[in-house]
Design a protein that fits this description.
This protein is an alpha+beta fold and 364 residues long. The chain has twelve helices and 20 strands.
Length: 364
């Protein structure tokens, strides 16, 4: 026990948003220290032993481009651990990185987890962090962490609704009086949007592209609603239900891939209208989940949400026009959190800083 306390003196406690797409690490008292893709590149030698070649941003650059003896792995899938060993090694790498490569550190760790993860999945996350060097692991549900990170009044008797769209899951939570009154987690989020673009291009153009290129398309020209220029006003989004004579020309990208009929390399022109068509069904899944939460929200809390609106967090919140798409469909104001990508990590970091929040919202 004395040794554990002594080690703790030399270890800075950390909060981790262990995301499917990105891992964000906050060190207590120092803020965000790491914000990198959740990817590990592994090289296997002739004897079959594996060696970590790269982690994070450098490893992501290798996705889809590695020779046979190098594999780029995403150890998190749909918000939970898909590869235990690689997740442990990735966490260990990040812990040592924020502690300047010192192996003799054992920080307390707060980890954001999707709402509704099973006991087995919770145990896997805790064991992975413990094996990576943590001396104590606390878990906090991502809808609550996102609400705290977005600055919502989580302790007050007011209803707040947060929609956190990450890489693997979309987390929807109604928060009031320090608890999740209603919460829902669906495994439809950024990765599914990327795959929808891959499938659309394959189906419509017989062109095979990778997930990295699909993500690039989503970020550059992806959109939830049509973009128009209205007479006498600033540029604005439009639902696209009616064609406007003032419609802005769609954005375009040249997309390169392999023609699945001829096997030769080919280039197509892909527009923002195509991108919107590709992801519309996936966006509807997210909208349907949001509507299902709204339908069972108690009347008093529903009144608060009508007044205060819906807060979007996570990387998916950055999709162009998503706030207007959801607002149009729900007839409620929708706002994007400040630094939506960092909302869960900031919430977990604040829990780490304030002992009363740790006791109220995190659990071992």
């Amino acid at each position: 026990m004395f040794l554990d306390k002594l080690i703790g003196v030399f270890s800075s406690d950390i909060a981790i948003d262990l995301g499917t797409a990105n891992t964000v690490v906050i060190v207590k008292g120092k803020g965000i220290q790491i914000n990198e893709p959740s990817v590990v590149a592994v090289q296997r030698d002739a004897a079959g032993r594996s060696h970590i070649l790269a982690v994070g941003r450098e490893a992501k650059e290798m996705v889809g481009k590695t020779p046979g003896n190098i594999v780029a792995i995403r150890p998190m899938r749909d918000g939970v651990i898909a590869d235990f060993e690689m997740t442990e090694r990735m966490i260990r790498y990040f812990i040592e990185k924020v502690h300047n490569r010192r192996a003799f550190v054992r920080p307390r760790v707060v980890v954001g987890v999707p709402y509704g993860v099973t006991q087995v999945e919770r145990k896997a996350i805790k064991e992975s962090a413990m094996s990576a060097g943590a001396r104590a692991v606390f878990l906090i549900e991502e809808p609550m962490a996102a609400a705290i990170g977005a600055g919502l009044p989580v302790k007050e008797p007011k209803g707040s609704l947060v929609v956190d769209i990450g890489g693997g899951t979309t987390e929807i939570g109604v928060v009031s009086l320090g608890g999740l009154v209603i919460s829902k987690s669906i495994r439809v989020a950024g990765d599914k949007l990327d795959m929808a673009i891959v499938d659309y291009i394959k189906r419509k153009h017989n062109l095979l592209i990778g997930e990295r290129l699909a993500e690039e398309i989503k970020i550059k020209i992806g959109n939830a609603v049509a973009y128009t220029v209205k007479p006498g006003t600033n540029d604005d989004f439009d639902t696209g239900k009616e064609k406007s004579s003032n419609a802005k020309e769609p954005e375009k990208m040249f997309v390169k891939g392999r023609d699945q009929l001829t096997g030769s390399l080919a280039t197509i022109e892909f527009t923002s209208d195509d991108a919107r068509e590709a992801i519309k069904d996936t966006l509807k899944d997210i909208l349907d989940a949001l509507k299902s939460v709204l339908e069972i929200t108690p009347p008093d809390l529903a009144g608060d949400i009508v007044e205060n609106g819906i807060i979007l967090a996570g990387g998916g919140a950055l999709l162009k026009g998503l706030d207007k798409y959801l607002s149009e469909a729900t007839k409620l104001p929708v706002y994007i959190a400040e630094d939506p990508l960092l909302a869960v990590a900031k919430g977990a970091g604040r829990v780490l800083e304030e002992i009363d929040l740790l006791q109220q919202f995190a659990y071992e």
